[in-house]
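Hi there, hope your week has been kind to you so far. Do you reckon you could talk me through the fold, stretch by stretch? Thanks so much in advance, here it is.
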Amino acid sequence: MKSFFDQHPTVRTVLFVVALIICTTPLSSPPLALLIGLVFAQFIGHPFVHLNSKSTGLLLKVSVVGLGFGMNVTQAMEAGKSGFLFTIGSILFTILLGLLIGKIFGLQKKTTVLVSSGTAICGGSAIAAIGPIVGANDKEMSVSLGTIFLLNSLALIVFPYIGHYFDLTQQQFGVWAAIAIHDTSSVVGAASTYGEEALHIATTVKLARALWIIPLSFVVAMFFRNNGTNKVKFPWFIALFVVAMILNSYVTFIQDCGKTLFSVSKIGLSVTLFLIGAGLSTAEIKSVGWKPLVLGLLLWIFISVASFIAITSFAL
């Protein structure tokens, strides 16, 4: 028996367009956009599902390039020198631990790499960059992003309370938040709650951390070769990301519109998440299971506890 929306496809299309518009407004956010998409897929249906895969792949790449206009090369390279060693160590150990746990759980390699990269570097931005390189499909992207955003939202609320409970200094909390919280937006949110000095330190350390998307992308590209050949598909959008960052750092008229381009790119990511969620059927979601969420949770606990111990032990 056909549903109401199957019988009235025009209504489905109109609602789809309305939801898409909502995802471009300040009322929305990346986690909310993904949630709206998932709800849409379960109860209404995607009217253009046959176009979804190609459109989300292209939009992801364009959005990643646009994110470069929100970064400054000099500021990022000089950022948070006190957190440099913690950043390198936490990224390497988190990714290696993620690969190990993923293998133990029997998770697909792509999902394991996406969740590990998102936890190790900068959440949704890292997943958006790595996803097209490994050839992740909508389900793998949605599961990875959903896992990261769920834990990211929890960290935004919990971290300031933990910092105050253990009486962390502004510097300690800033470095800890930048390392252990996934997305830049939540890092800024948590640090601004803690104090102005923590906000400055957390922001600069996070900028330096985000640069690791670039070498990680090329390393991942080497391991995920096309069709078993020795040729590596060059991640052109990462190269353009670097160009965008350089232009934003040294070209005056680009700097004037850099914030706008960065904001538009964040909207692009939200729209992409909506499209990804809207393309997922109930059967696909059920087939995912609990393992990716447990992987993300274990990695998040590891990086949070390990960085906390290291930061407090060295008395930053």
Observations:
- The CA atoms of residues 110 and 135 lie 8 Å apart.
- The chain is about 80% helix and 0% strand.
